Amino acid sequence: MSLSNGRHTLAIPGPSIMPDRVLQAMHRAAPNIYTGELIDITASLVPDLKAVAQTSGNVAMYVGNGHAAWEAALANTLNRGDKVLVPATGRFAHGWAEMAQQMGIEVEILEFGMRASVDPAQLEEALKADKDHKIKAVLSVFVDTSTSAKSDTAAIRAAMDAALHPALLMSDCIACLACDAFEMDAWGVDVMVTGSQKGLMTPPGMCFVFFNEKAEAAKSQVDYVSGYWNWSPRANPQGYYQYWCGTAPTHHVYGLREALNMIVHEEGLPAVFNRHAVLARAVWAAADAWATEGPFELNITDPAARSHAVTSVRIGAPAGTQLRNWLTENAGVTLGIGLGMEDETDPNADGYFRIGHMGHLNSHMLLGTLGSIDAGMKALGIPHGSGALEAASRVCAVRG
After folding, report:
1. What does pTM read for this prediction?
2. What does the pLDDT read at residue 399?
3. Cis (ω within 30 of 0) for the bond into 15?
4. Rounded-to-integer distance, Cα 395 and Cα 65, Å
């Protein structure tokens, strides 16, 4: 007998659980795309998106996923043959690097492995070694969705400034915008990319590129930017179609408008960030208890380097895959796969899983997921320490 019937819980690091309000806002007939409320609603997204990013700069909206945002950021700022430095803390840093290479951009990887955040001192040394300033941009992933490593973006900018290096600082916030606090202007970020489907609580299909005046100046040195990727008309449209270079993603606009109402105007950003911090600490408290016996281990050991949006777990092959399958089949919970965590001893990443704790999430939803993980380890005979749910509950009780 399975206990998985009922509303399924998607505890993966995106797409996140979509609020009913967002889905209801999208459940409507197609609107007029020439005049009327859609035009006003689209314009209203811009200041709220900037508020979430904490920037006074520009934002360009695209119909696309996070990979589209990567390409848009590169296409507007770099030429074929230009060089970028990628401090890598997981699979998605390498993914952005691979896209750059496919666009004819030279890539230098500064590797930090799968269990650490960026070391600003090493980054500073790498930039000091670039005496001719061939490196045009640093592509930094704020939170790598595969490893759950969070890097100190302000410290990265400080390292670049200490090296007296003029490169653009680009930041990938796809995993964590509206979950982990991000201060684009205060931290000196020139370009930031994100998507709709995680902290912004809207189905996959929209992505965003935020950019400042320095990035716009770099664009003036680019030989060719296609009409579709060009961020200038999207950020400053003279006609409605220019937001999208064509037809609007109409129903995503309605959904995102409702999500931003919830994030910015109702709960408020400070409360959103605090909620995610508390729920993340509840996950870590449970993990610390489980880890007292058996193979359970958080991938990132330093709490300061952990994301508030996603937690990557090491549990040993094949227990990761077995646990994920058991939860899906018996508890109605889907955990994230061990994406990008393959190595010689675990070629299929069967010894890993990820818990997404982002977006439309409260304590009872998270505690249900943690309880299901606990039940799954018991059912499968995976050794683990006791007291995990009590520890998580105490975090929620004190801070909730």
Report:
1. 0.96
2. 60
3. yes
4. 34
Cβ atoms of 198 and 359 closer than 8 Å? yes
Give the tens place of pLDDT for each residue, 12-52.
999 999 999 999 999 999 999 999 999 999 999 999 999 99
- Partnered with residue 342 across adjacent β-strands are none
Token reading at 186: 């205060």
Asked if 84 and 139 count as a contact pair (C-beta separation under 8 A), the reply is yes
Residue 391 · residue 289 · CB < 8 Å: yes
Distance CA 398, CA 392 (A): 10
Of 24, 15, 92, residue with least CA distance to 334: 15
> Which is nearest to 209 in space by CA: 225, 16, 155?
225
> Cα(51)–Cα(183) distance, rounded to whole angstroms?
10
Which of 236, 222, 218, 178 is CA-nearest to residue 16?
A: 178
Amino acid at residue number 309: A
Sign of CA dihedral 239, 240, 244, 245: negative
DSSP state of 241: G
The Cα–Cα gap between 260 and 21 comes to 11
Please choose, from the candidates 321, 23, 29, 189, the residue with its C-alpha nearest in 3D space to the C-alpha of residue 313: 321
- How far is it, in rounded angstroms, from Cα 57 to Cα 48? 12
| H or E element, residue 126 | helix 120-129
Cross-strand partners of 208 = 61, 194
Residue 205: both structure tokens together: 């299909």
Nearest to 354 by CA among 172, 206, 149: 149
